[in-house]
Specification:
The complex is a heterodimer of chains A (about 190) and B (about 400).
Chain A: H1 6-27, H2 31-51, H3 55-80, H4 92-114, H5 133-141, H6 164-193
Chain B: H1 2-6, H2 11-49, H3 64-75, H4 86-105, H5 121-142, H6 146-177, H7 182-188, H8 202-218, H9 243-268, H10 278-281, H11 290-321, H12 327-355, H13 367-371, H14 383-395
Helix pairs in contact in B: 2-3, 2-4, 2-9, 2-11, 3-9, 4-5, 4-9, 5-6, 5-9, 6-8, 6-12, 8-9, 8-12, 9-11
The chains are: A mainly alpha (about 190), B mainly alpha (about 400).
Chain lengths: ~190, ~400
């Protein structure tokens, strides 16, 4: 009774909460309730990140998804709602399509998860948890501190295979999306005026 | 603490007991803090606006008033409007309270005295304080009342836009100290008050004021209390709440005020390192004796709580002095003033630390370097030290 593995306990707790509320998102029909269930689910996922020692990713999850995206979602619902509480009915075709897509994803993920060697050995020793913010930050700047000794692609310095290029591509992509959104909003307004 | 208890109890019970003690201590910061701050709020508003306030309750300086308030709130009937979404209506106050409580979890009260020592403490506190809005929005939405809905909409618009300049302001001290660990940032400002980041350069000085404005807006205090706006919206998002649920919103408000003041104290005012370094003058450090270090840490905690209280009192002073802004003025202040000023301050602080890493003659060693000691032989150097070395080699 005196040797509870707290790491496993909290992992199971957070995983269970995340899964149950993810199902609740699908099952409920009220948008704001869905948003609330999504918050709990994403918050539990952030808890899993904290448990794995990835403080930065966990905080990022809370800030972007829970604090940003979902607040905007509920804000949008409040701005556009006609009645007090809106309900969304999901049609039969939508259910079938959704099950097809998510079933395919699940079928992809499960073999991938079970193919990881380290997870099958039943090794319950708690792994050393190391802070991740510095490696991620240095990786974005162009230095992979975790791969200093590894071989790098031709023409690059030692330890310089970094996230800088993907990061730049993502930011340019976001900029394009923003410009597009601004353009769409502007054209609609002009049409109203004329 | 868990190890100490496990000598006498089962291990799982010991861990549970240790966790409960830690949580209770932190909740006291929120709950007792709210008690004291509500009393102080009454006093401050009475002095500033020449009001009488409640006069029937006894106690020296009327300290029994907040106790009487507490008893009244506990015994009041817990009402819910008929058309409300019951589940969300009930759970909303707890979301707000949990969010502000979680922010206190990562806030260090003295050197190493922190519930969860995260290496991204600043970022965590900002992220979690942003969640507090969600309780307010859900409360407003689920009450099925137009006043509440208006309040919640204003809150959402305001907080989402003020998070941008707030984040930019917080990045400036992080940039100068090179760390997101709040304990590290606090320790780097050891010594006299000119070591505080507030006096690091003119840019950080201005950054603090922008930070404070944005923090006021993000914790929903007047002149940014549009979500409540009792002269326009009855009571805004908590119009339909009463009793203990209503008081959860207030505890959340006061403890998040405490949290943002604490963040300001650590980022700009040296945290537990006072204007005069009393602990190091009298030798109250861990190097001399463990008990002396403990006393020093305790004095540091008092110092830190004092700074937080000053910050909260400053917020009260602002609240009872300035009139409430209109929503368009709030947005204008954020987008036209706070964001550009914060951006310019960020650039300025970058250039300043690049050109004058030691400041104007007061510091011989830049912040990021001073705290990190050289690793002893055989010990693995910290991971960022490796990175800095690599960059230096590349530069040659």
């Amino acid at each position: 009774m005196d040797a509870i593995n707290w790491h496993s306990f909290f992992f199971l707790l957070f995983a269970l909460v995340a899964c149950v509320f993810a199902v609740a998102v699908v099952a409920s029909s009220n948008i704001v309730r869905m948003a609330f269930h999504l918050i709990v689910s994403l918050g539990a996922t952030a808890g899993l990140f904290f448990l794995a020692g990835a403080d930065f990713v966990g905080a990022m999850q809370l800030m972007i998804y829970v604090g940003g995206t979902l607040v905007l979602l509920v804000f949008g619902v409040m701005l556009t709602a006609q009645g007090p509480f809106i309900n969304m009915k999901t049609g039969g075709g939508d259910w079938i399509l959704a099950f097809l897509v998510s079933g395919c994803l699940l079928a992809l993920l499960i073999p991938a998860a079970f193919s990881v060697e380290a997870w099958r050995e039943g090794d319950t020793r708690s792994a050393a948890v190391e802070p991740t913010a510095t490696p991620i930050g240095m990786g974005l700047l162009g230095v992979r501190v975790d791969k200093l000794d590894a071989d790098t692609p031709h023409g690059m310095e030692r330890g310089m295979s970094s996230y800088l290029l993907p990061f730049e591509i993502v930011s340019v992509h976001l900029l394009v999306v923003l410009v597009g959104a601004a353009y769409l909003a502007r054209t609609k307004r002009r049409r109203v005026e004329t | 603490m868990a190890d100490y208890f496990s000598q006498y109890l089962w291990t799982w019970l010991a861990y549970l007991l240790a966790a409960i003690i830690h949580c209770a201590l932190l909740i006291q910061v929120g709950a007792l803090g709210a008690l004291v701050f509500i009393w102080a709020e009454r006093k401050v508003s009475g002095r500033i606006q020449d009001r009488l306030g409640p006069t029937r309750v006894g106690g020296k300086f009327g300290w029994l008033q907040s106790l009487a308030d507490g008893v009244k709130l506990l015994t009041k009937e817990d009402l819910m409007p008929e058309g409300a979404d019951g589940f969300l209506f009930r759970i909303a106050p707890y979301i707000s309270f949990c969010a502000s409580f979680a922010a206190l979890m990562a806030l260090p009260f003295s050197d190493g005295w922190v519930a969860v020592d995260l290496n991204v403490g600043v970022f965590f506190i900002l992220a979690v304080l942003g969640l507090e809005v969600f309780g307010v929005i859900l409360a407003g939405y689920s009450s099925a009342s137009k006043w509440s809905l208006f309040g919640a909409m204003r809150e959402a618009a305001q907080v989402v836009s003020y998070e941008v300049p707030l984040g930019m302001c917080v990045v400036v001290p992080v940039l100068i100290t090179g760390s997101m660990d709040l304990v590290d940032i606090g320790q780097m400002q050891q010594g006299w008050f000119w070591n505080w980041l507030l006096f690091h350069d003119p840019f950080t000085f201005i950054t603090f004021w922008v930070y404070f404005t944005c923090a006021l807006a993000s914790v929903n205090r007047a002149p940014f209390d549009l979500a409540e706006a009792e002269s326009e919206l009855v009571a805004g998002f908590h119009t339909e709440y009463s009793g203990i649920r209503w008081s959860y919103f207030f505890m959340a408000e006061y403890s998040s005020m405490f949290a943002v003041s604490g963040l300001a104290a650590i980022l700009f005012f040296g945290g537990w390192n006072g204007p005069i370094p009393i602990t190091s003058i009298f030798g109250l450090t861990h190097e001399n004796h463990a008990v002396l270090g403990y006393i020093g840490n305790f004095l540091g905690m008092l110092n830190f709580i004092g700074k937080c209280t000053l910050g909260v009192l400053f917020m009260m002073w602002v609240r009872w002095t300035l009139p409430r802004l209109r929503i368009d003025q709030v947005m204008k202040l954020c987008l036209k003033y706070c964001v550009p000023i914060a951006a310019v301050m960020f650039l300025g602080a970058t250039v300043w630390t690049f050109l004058l890493p030691g400041g104007v003659g007061l510091r011989s060693v830049p912040y990021g370097m001073r705290y990190k000691t050289a690793p002893s032989a055989g010990e693995k150097p910290p991971i960022d030290a490796v990175a800095v070395e690599t960059v230096a080699v590349k530069g040659e």
